[in-house]
Prior knowledge:
The complex is a heterotrimer.
Chain A: E1 4-13, E2 16-26, E3 31-35, H1 42-50, E4 57-62, E5 65-66, E6 77-80, H2 92-102, H3 107-120, H4 136-149, E7 154-158, H5 166-183, E8 186-190, H6 194-200, E9 203-208, E10 211-216, H7 218-223, H8 228-233, E11 240-249, E12 253-258, E13 263-267, E14 279-284, E15 290-291, E16 298-308, E17 312-319, E18 323-330, E19 340-344, E20 351-353, E21 359-360
Parallel strand pairs in A: 3-8, 3-9, 6-7, 7-8
Antiparallel strand pairs in A: 1-2, 1-4, 4-5, 9-10, 11-12, 11-14, 12-13, 14-20, 15-19, 16-17, 16-19, 17-18, 20-21
Helix pairs in contact in A: 2-3, 2-4, 3-4
Chain B: H1 8-35, H2 40-45, H3 57-65, H4 68-99, H5 105-114, H6 124-134, H7 140-164, H8 168-176, H9 181-189, H10 194-210, H11 213-218, H12 227-237, H13 242-262, H14 264-271
Helix pairs in contact in B: 1-13, 3-13, 4-5, 4-7, 4-10, 4-12, 7-10, 8-9, 10-14, 12-13, 13-14
Chain C: H1 5-48, E1 51-54, E2 57-61, H2 65-72, H3 74-109, H4 116-128, H5 131-141, H6 148-155, H7 172-184, H8 186-198, H9 201-209, H10 214-225, H11 227-242, H12 246-252, H13 265-274, H14 284-311
Antiparallel strand pairs in C: 1-2
The complex binds adenosine-5'-triphosphate and magnesium ion (MG).
Adenosine-5'-triphosphate binds at residues 13, 18, 36, 38-44, 192 of chain A.
Amino acid sequence: MANVVLRSVNKQFGEVKVIKDVNLTVEDNEFVVFVGPSGCGKSTLLRLIAGLEDLTSGEVHIEEERVDHLAPSKRGVAMVFQSYALYPHFTVRQNMGYALRVAKESKETIAKKVNDAASVLQLTEYLERKPKALSGGQRQRVAIGRAIVRDPKVFLFDAPLSNLDAKLRVQMRIELTKLHRSLNATMIYVTHDQVEAMTMADKIVVLRDGKVEQIGAPLDLYNAPDNLFVAGFIGSPSMNFFDGTVINTSNTDVEIDVKDSVKIKFPLNEPSNLSTGDKVSFGVRPEHFTIGNTNQGTFTGEVYAVERLGGETYLYLYVGDQKEVVAHMSGDQKIAIGDMVEIGFSLKQSYLFGPHGDAVR
Amino acid sequence: MQTKRNAGYEAWLVQIFLIATTIVVLYPIIMMAMSGFKTNAEIFGNPFALPKSLNFDNYLVIWNTTDVPRFLLNSTIVTLASVAILLVTGTMAAYAISRYRFRGSIMVSLFFLAGLMLPLRLAIIPLFIQLKFMGLIDNLLGLIFIYIAMSLPSTVFILTGFLRALPSELEDSARVDGASEFRIMVEIMVPLITPAMVIAGIYNAVPIWNDFFFPLIFIQTPEMKTLAQGLTSFFGEYSVNFGVLYAGLTLAALPVVIVFIVQSKRFIAGMTAGAIK
Amino acid sequence: MSMTNADYEKAKRNRTLKLKLWLLFLILPPAAILIVFVFVPMGSAVWYSVFDWDGLVRKEFIGLANFQDILFNPLKNKVLFNAFMNNVKVFVSLMLVQNGIALVIALLLARNPKGYRFYQVVFFLPVILSTVIIGFQWKLFLNPVFGLVNKFLHNIGLHDWALPWLGLPETALNSMLLVNSWHWFGFPTLVFLAAIHRIPKDFIEAARLDGASEWRIAREIIWPLMAPAITIITVLTFIGSFNWFEIPYIMNGLEGSPAGSTDMLGLMFYRTAFGSVSAGGSNFGSGSALAVLMFIFIFVFSIIATKYLTSREVEMN
Ligand SMILES: Nc1ncnc2c1ncn2[C@@H]1O[C@H](COP(=O)(O)OP(=O)(O)OP(=O)(O)O)[C@@H](O)[C@H]1O
Ligand SMILES: [Mg+2]
């Protein structure tokens, strides 16, 4: 069972707290993705698991064994870096075999494992080349190959695809998913790319400022974000937020007055502790707007930009007092700049967040 | 700066000036080499003519009857040993300073850089007493140690710059691969700075090979003299035989000139390394 | 048997300890060499200067008497002043002649003339040669009777010009300065050249488009942007000038002959410390005092010069 467990993990660089009390369980064979804004501590967390940084406090367990006192190589992890970190003076073969050579494996074993990994990654014909003579995608494969060869319990990826162009990125994304399935390995993956996170992850961990904001399956985060931050972070373009004030509450719904605009009666599944006068945020995802009035809620705005991609259309509107709103429609919409448009939404596909940003459901 | 080739009379003026300078630089060197093949009579009678024949007599005199071959050997030993140990120890210090965060790391690097500011020549008296005490007077080892110490600061300075520029992900990657700190340094990181090591090596090897001051004071027996220093006694001995003197100078210049011509790019980069940022 | 929390802490401490030992292993050998052969002797030089010495034997503490002796003993301070002024002359002359020529040549090479690489290599060739070789070579060339220089002058009919160059107080030092310039000019040339190459092309092209004259471009763009290189060369020339020893020693000996016209602080230091005809027996006390004075002077001046020159530099970023 190659699971990974973090218990109250903290990391400080000097006086700066970079990781704050992170608790996390990664199950065996799970593909977990860390996302969050730049500088939130994703790489640091990964490096703590790998053993490249020492914990300030807390525990790391891999496969039911505490490992935070062990050197990186004793933890059974392999890591793929953003810059690939291939050894420039080694050939592909030497790069892939280095860990085995250090571990004093026999020449035959090394050759066999390297050849096997190379054929999986279609690198066989490049084995004798130096990294400089490879394309970006090939280098990426070598970096992955170097990890595979070691047959680790856990793979750690730090934004491995971010240096590739868009097309290669899609291709590698699919290959990595295949690889995950065929290797049956636990993988932890850091990315800036929403699509990578949503498509590859069994579970996403959203980090902000060194703290875990929410952990969950991709669609759970999308459908039921715990707070304003996760709601804004997951989904692209981001969710539209409207300032509002509570004007009435009951056990089944809250009535809010959206600034400069409409009044909404938001249905509750669970009791809220909102009270009249509270400042709240009301959210609607761009893709959940439809053109025209719905009975549940409608904004009227002036279109100031339109992006027509044929299969889909993005509308940018000013609602109320210059409030910028994005709406995403499928198909081509015959709408021009300056038009006044009504965009509607359904209450089931809208979100409410209390004064401290917590979701109201 | 200006990449286009200049045309017209301006370009000609530039060329004339540069060619004149070239003559001023090369002519004395050529004269020195040529005079080495001449007899005294030729030098005094016909100083600017080509030598009558490619006459190696002067070189034979040097090879057979003087200590110059011995001096050559001593200089070679001193230079190679100093530079080799220098590069090993300099790399060690530079590696520690540039690749690890530890308390006092700034102090350590200041300590090594402070050496850049200290003209060791002015400490020649205490050095003399100290070497005497250590039994290193009249001993090539004494010179070797002094040269290493003298060259360490610049070596650490040059290598630190290059080592810092290496991505830390390489090191991390090797660490995950299970390599020890020693292996990471020797197998992964140091091979990547060999060009810098060549530069640092040349930067220090040339002054060491050419040095005259320290041997002048620390070496007294003829068998231990280095080339630059040995030339002085050689000059005393052969003060009237100009042909032999010129041949001796040529011979002394030859090794460095050959290496320079083969490796001129690295040499220039190396020797100006301290002055060009 | 499972590990306790204390065991984990111990394992971690062991890892840190191992890392510390590794760092010590890296730092200690070079540091030891530097301490033993640079820092201790440099420190001792100061220490020694306040003692009376009898040969290699240190006698009693005498305070600043050695300094007083060098600076105010009328016999010695005349020599000191003469040598010092000669060093000043060396510095000024080398700045003007050696570095001036270098600057001109660097500006010419920056135009990327045909044969650029060749010229670079040729001009650098003397730099790599030992000062000893060059000193002796030119001593032979300048020999009043057999030297090539005078033979050449006779050949072209300038019989009156054929002087004993190294033998006359008026010409000895100048001859040596020319030899030194011949030896070293390639170094500042390439440093200046590198600095010129680092000036962004856009700067110059923009100025040309604005209609600035070449002279203005040189003066207002190239020159200020070369300031860092000029600072470095000035400081290096200064240090070299006040440590000047090899050329005068080889060409005219330890006494700075003729008539002290080529005497330098370096020669005086050597004579004082290790003895000579004029200075008598070796005197480590006075020698150390002189070394300390020279060190302080060179150090302070270098710092001031660097500060002053750097403050005039323009930031290129
Ligand atoms: N060695 C270090 N010393 C001091 N601070 C550090 C160090 N490494 C990282 N940090 C700080 O820790 C914080 C988290 O860095 P980290 O690299 O983990 O962010 P990240 O989430 O990976 O960002 P990105 O998405 O840009 O890669 C940053 O504020 C960074 O400046
Ligand atoms: Mg990162």
